[in-house]
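Hi Y.,

Following your request, here is the sequence exactly as I used it, all 489 residues.
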Amino acid sequence: MAESACRGFTSGGGNAGPTAGKGAAGAAPARARTAQDSAPKRQPARESAARTYARALPVVPVRARGLTIEGADGRRYLDCVSGAGTLALGHNHPVVLEAIRKVLDSGAPLQVMDLTTPVEDAFVTELLHTLPPGLADHARVRFCGPSGTDPVATAVGLVRAATGRHRVITFTGTHHRAVTAEACAGPGDACDTRRAPLPYPQDRHCPFGVGGDRGAELAAHWAESVLDDRRSADQPPAGMLLEPVHGEGGVLPAPDAWMRRMRRITAERAVLLIADETETGVGRTGAFWAVEHSGVRPDVLVLSKAIGGSLPLAAVVHRDDLHTGEPGAGTFRGNQLALAAGAATLAHVREHRLAEHAAVLGSRMLTRLRGLAEEFRCVGDVRGRGLMLGVELVAPDGTREAPAHGTDTGPAPGTAAEVAAAVQRECLRRGLIVDLAGPSGNVVRLLPPLIVTEEQTSAVLDRLADAVAAVDRSHGAPHAPPHGARAAR
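Below is the corresponding structure, written out as tokens. Let me know if you'd prefer a different format.
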């Protein structure tokens, strides 16, 4: 492990081992370690199998700082999951901890729904300061429940109330598609086939079989035709919900030209554009907000994850002329500790230009990851933007599908999902924690915190390359002709 990746733990944060002292002072830590070591064995019998991370990543974290997690077994891991992108500044960043301590020590209330407080005011001020040009000057902020689904539901309700219309258009592969499709189904329109998700532009799995600019153009034509279809409705949709980068869908960045086309066709038809920046916001893609890459100004911005500075927080930002005055939803909207941590995170990312840092390091990582695709047959594609990167794994034969999500049996042998799961296990053996995404769970996703150093990214890529090589050998896939990719490492 790179030396810098292991630094930052306070005194006593070294490898866990037998307690040296005797008596009560030594017995308590020993009992604590025993309980920690037994936790993974108890979990399957006590908690729902929906805890997918616990099944794939059998780590019991006891300390963390920056990119590094220390497990109860004393091992240290480089964390490239970052709480599914919630940790913009990594684990326990000093500015976040100081903001939380300040609120705790002040005696201020910790939970007041969304009453105005100095902490809330500071967060809203900082959030407005970071918004894309053109939106900040005419924006309202609405807090809601803290999960990623809550602001999506809030945004859908907002555009319906503002337009008086009902349907909301979504895209294939979006993380919130199932929830939103259910929310978009109204009385009498359960069989309206126009609610089917629209094709999202991508290269490797282009629904039109062409990819590239032509594939994106065809996807745009399809979206335009659906917006203009009036066969079973007198009105256009209320809104269109899209992600600038599909994270859970397999790390698929939308082409900038396609994003601008979506903005144009929705504006021409008075359809409100909702940009879901749950995963892409706060510098993740190399811009503070991913819509800035294309210059698109959405009508509604869905925010969660990183805006809470590691604590649960979500909000919807929208044009002020869409304001309906309806109260927010969710008991835990605007939690004071999350607001404080979020304001500190937003300010730190802005002041230290961490979005630009993510763009530079992400570009370097993407270049090296593409070398894996040249060297190993099990790597089908590499893509991403900023520090939101995906490596798609492919099966030796590619003929068998993975089982439905939620099964306990794991991916079927011979599938791309099995190859990806094997890479994830090999990464963990090497002290690297990675996530899996994509419709079949066959995309290794890298979400390092924005404070990651170049030295740390080298350590991450070294371990990932070794893991891919091990899986490639074990699955018997013949190597592609060498192109100097290994030398480039």
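The first strand starts at residue 61 and ends at 65.

Thanks again,
Q.
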